[in-house]
Amino acid sequence: MYTKTNVMTIKILAFGITRDILGGSSLEMQIPGHTRVADLRATLYAQYPALQKLSTLAIALNTEYASDEELIGEKDEVVLIPPVSGG
Question: Residue 47 and which of 3, 13, 21, 25 are 20 to 30 A apart at CA?
Fold first, then answer.
């Protein structure tokens, strides 16, 4: 169990199909401090298995695509970016 000092609440914005999977356009989630993007992705996949069926799922922090190794800060804007199709 995490102590209050090493847990942070983040807001995740969802677009496209990720909005449908999460059941809304945003989600608040408590995560441990020093959480990497890869850790968040794994947590989301565990809580929302349908996300794993997407061909790609990019995660952006503060309007920039994030690598799996980047740390998430409490003030960061976290955005789920589903696969994009065009026509």
Answer: 3
Percent of the chain with pLDDT over 70: 91
Between the alpha carbon of residue 21 and those of residues 25, 37, 73, 78, 84, the distances in Å are 10, 19, 24, 16, 16
Going from the C-alpha of 33 to that of each of 5, 50, 73, the distances in angstroms are 8, 26, 8
pLDDT digits (tens, 9 = 90+) for 45-78: 999 999 999 999 999 999 999 999 999 998 999 9
Count CB-CB contacts under 10 A for residue 78: 22
CATH superfamily assigned to domain 4-81: Beta-grasp domain (3.10.20.30)
